[in-house]
Design a protein that fits this description.
EFG_V-like; 14 helices; cell membrane; binds guanosine-5'-triphosphate; alpha+beta; protein biosynthesis
């Protein structure tokens, strides 16, 4: 045990975490040349394409230092705020953390939020100043920032470049010297923390764990504490680039477990594994069910594909336990599903996976957060509103509460004004303003989650010219004045276009929605009035004028091939359209409310 080191890498997005992990694997000889590939740890295609780490992974390295052999377990963590719960679990499985800071970008919002998570778990922090090879790097200034933040010495900071390999040896030495060896009770009943799980279509769910006390043996009868289910440990082993089956994984070490579980929902990140006959008495530390933050309807483009969509979603859920869905129906779109996501990125990923892996073309409706409504009839009963159509009628509605978050934004002092006006426009209330240095300011706001899940991040980037980083954490529900804004096309309400909005914004957004829809809905043979309404009251109106021109009109005469080509083109453009009443609505229109400021 004394020669094991468990550590993770924490950083703001794009500060070089995955690249650094690759260098460490290289340097310790954990990969052969043939296995070498950029960003080894990001194994999903999507991850590689998007250049982001979606799921956290673990990998074991051997390293000899001053004549002694060490086992280093690197637990990689996802960088996007949608997956922050996984970061916290990975952190809980370690004793130390490399805090990677980009020498050109300095400390950003997620550097700080991840650092706090690490400090809460008493991790030893090793600050790494990455990307010192960049011409724009500013190592002196950024080192000062790090010293201010951590209260460490300048000499504690390791200058490095994950690109050139500078500093890698020093980092490995620091992991061995500064990160404490795991401490745990070898003789106590098994207690292991699940920090991740991965779905393998052939072997079922692979569970990644860290043994805190005792050991886990092959064929042992084990129990998952939170779900209360028993399994047999069919295979346990250590994780290298490949899996290495072992007879036993001992106290302090990290490994994988295969039990034949076929459904990802049975394995919950943060749960504790214990022995079925001799269970641990210690409480499961900090286990939390991950709750979806954003809800949207997903409908097949072709109504006949509903069953196929259901089958695809069920398969997706087997390997992504954070996806939840229930069937729903919409007057406009027919049968589909209301799905819960961790955030907008997660929504995009699911949509893309449905298309790539299952060949499904789907229509996604306006996303919304989850509200809580109370009616006059029973003001104590909470009604969950995950869909605008679930909101009770205004006459019977007592009050609505919406989720709030604490937003932390770090920006340059020049942009404080812009950032503040943006946040105030988004119904934010400033709660704190701290100058980290004379140039950099940390701002905190209490804001409704609904305002930030959509275009906030892009707007923030624009108003700060890219010099703002952002992070948030939920702070509970607060009462809010919300109304349902409906959209009528050709005098028919299209339920899939309804949105829940704050009363102060409803008129403005209603008007913008009509304008945007006018741009997006193709002209047809007749005038299409577009109206926004609150209840029976129309608050805005636009009209899509009737079409006069036939696309093939120009090709009079016999040029049939050209005519066909044009018609093909028109058909392609129609692919993702939905006929509602007699109006054709393209997919973009369902998301129009998100793009009002484009
Ligand atoms: N010049 C230079 N570029 C680097 C260095 N380290 C990483 N990069 C580049 O910075 C970008 C981001 O690096 P990643 O390793 O993907 O960053 P990350 O923190 O893992 O990002 P997420 O996985 O999305 O959280 C990539 O284009 C890397 O090639 C470095 O030391 N020097």
């Amino acid at each position: 045990m004394k020669n094991i080191r468990n550590f993770c890498i924490i950083a703001h997005i794009d500060h070089g975490k995955s690249t650094l992990a690759d260098r460490l694997l290289d340097f310790t000889g954990s990969v052969t040349d043939r296995e070498k590939q950029e960003q080894l740890l990001d194994s999903m295609d999507l991850e590689r394409e998007r250049g982001i780490t979606i799921k956290s992974h673990a990998i074991q390295m051997d390293y000899e230092y001053e004549g002694e052999k060490y086992v280093l377990n690197l637990i990689d963590t996802p960088g996007h705020v949608d997956f922050s719960y996984e970061v916290s679990r990975s952190i809980a499985a370690c004793e130390g953390a490399l805090l990677v800071v980009d020498a050109a970008q300095s400390i950003q919002a997620q550097t700080i939020s991840n650092l706090y998570l690490a400090l809460e778990n008493d991790l030893e922090i090793i600050p790494v100043l990455n990307k010192v090879d960049l011409p724009s790097a500013n190592p002196e200034v950024v080192s000062d920032d790090i010293v201010d933040l951590l209260g460490c010495e300048h000499s504690d900071i390791i200058p490095a470049s994950a690109k050139t390999g500078l500093g890698i040896e020093e980092i490995l030495a620091a992991i061995i010297k500064r990160v404490p060896a795991p401490s745990g009770k070898v003789d106590a009943p098994l207690r292991a923390l699940i920090f991740d799980s991965v779905y393998n279509p052939f072997r079922g769910v692979e569970t990644y764990f860290r043994v805190i006390n005792g050991s886990i043996k092959k064929n042992q009868n084990i129990k998952f504490v939170a779900t209360g289910k028993n399994y047999s440990a069919d295979e346990v082993g250590t994780l290298r680039l490949k899996q290495f089956p072992r007879e036993e994984i001992k106290t302090g070490d990290v490994g994988y477990l295969i039990t034949g579980i076929k459904d990802a929902r049975e394995v919950k990140v943060g749960d504790t594994i214990t022995d079925a006959k001799n269970p641990t008495t210690e409480a499961v530390a900090g286990f939390e069910d991950v709750k979806p933050m954003v809800f949207a309807g997903i409908y097949p483009v072709d109504t006949e594909d509903y069953e196929e969509l259901r089958a695809s979603m069920e398969k997706l859920q087997l390997n992504d336990a954070s996806l939840v869905f229930t069937p729903e129906s919409s007057a406009a779109l027919g049968f589909g599903f209301r799905c819960g996501f961790l955030g907008m990125l997660h929504l995009e990923i699911i949509q893309e996976r449905l298309e790539r892996e299952f060949d499904m073309t789907v229509i996604t409706t306006v996303p919304n957060v989850s509200y809580q409504a109370y009616t006059n009839r029973n003001p104590n009963e909470v009604l969950l509103v995950n869909n605008p159509s679930d909101l009770p009628e205004p006459s019977s509605l007592n009050r609505v509460e919406e989720p709030f978050i604490k937003a932390t934004i770090i920006t340059k002092s020049d942009y404080v004004g812009n950032v503040m006006s943006l946040c105030i426009e988004k119904r934010g209330e400033i709660t704190n303003q701290t100058y980290l240095t004379t140039e950099r300011v940390e701002l905190s706001f209490d804001m409704p989650l609904a305002e930030i899940v959509f275009d906030f991040y892009d707007r923030l980037k624009t108003v700060s010219r890219g010099y703002a980083s952002f992070d948030y954490s939920p702070i509970g529900m607060r009462e809010s004045k919300l109304v349902k804004v409906d959209v009528l096309l050709n005098a028919n309400t299209v339920d899939a276009l309804s949105a829940l909005l704050h009363v102060d914004n409803a008129y403005d957004i209603g008007k913008k929605m009509c304008e945007k829809l006018k741009e997006l809905i193709p002209r047809q043979q007749f005038d299409i009035p577009i109206q926004a309404a609150i209840g029976a009251k129309i608050i805005a109106r636009e009209t899509v004028k009737a079409l006069r021109k036939d696309v093939t009109a120009k090709c009079y005469g016999g040029d049939i091939s050209r005519k066909r080509k044009l018609l093909e083109k028109q058909k392609k453009g129609k692919k993702r359209m939905r006929q509602v009443g007699n109006v054709e609505i393209p997919q973009e229109a369902f998301m129009a409310v998100l793009k009002l400021n484009d």
